[in-house]
Amino acid sequence: MAYTIRVKTHPSDQQYLFDKTFNSQEEFQTVKNLCISRQEIGFFESMLITARTNTLENCVTDFFFPTLINHALKIHDLALKILMTIDLFIVDICTLPIRLITLLPRMLYNEYNRKETHPFYIYLINQGVPAEALGDHIFLEQQYIEGRIGLPQGFECDQNRVTSKLALNFIQLPKGVSSGHKEYSGVGIVHP
Prior knowledge:
The chain is 36% helix and 20% strand. By secondary structure, it is an alpha+beta fold. The chain has 2 domains: 3-38 and 115-188, no CATH class; 43-112, no CATH class.
């Protein structure tokens, strides 16, 4: 059996930052257990707290216009974008005092939960991945091959390849900043 974990900075990247095949299921499972994404901040929660305080740009964006920039500007329909921009601008201004009150506790929380404290981030750095190549989130691909399971009747196959691709957040991000948690999962390699 083969067990592989691959990491890239963007789903469309052709080159991996990290690509490792493990010799045993135990080794793979140990590393896979480190791949827990930090929770995303929802739409309503981002109106009340500043999600990201790790850089000045992120802090200003999430403090002054958390719903406008992180949600409204990603809409493709122009008329809907204009309507949502006006509405969310008003909401952002009205909830600004609440975010001001919650800013200091949030900064302390984020300092304690920096990306450098995430177990998989630490693992990648120890494996030689440069820190500057790792952003607030990465795209992870886990793949393993196991014996004949779950194949429809009539297929002759000695292996199944199970692949899952997901975005892994090193810090708490507003929904929509990374490409979401689960992108794809499936079973492949069929030898008729």
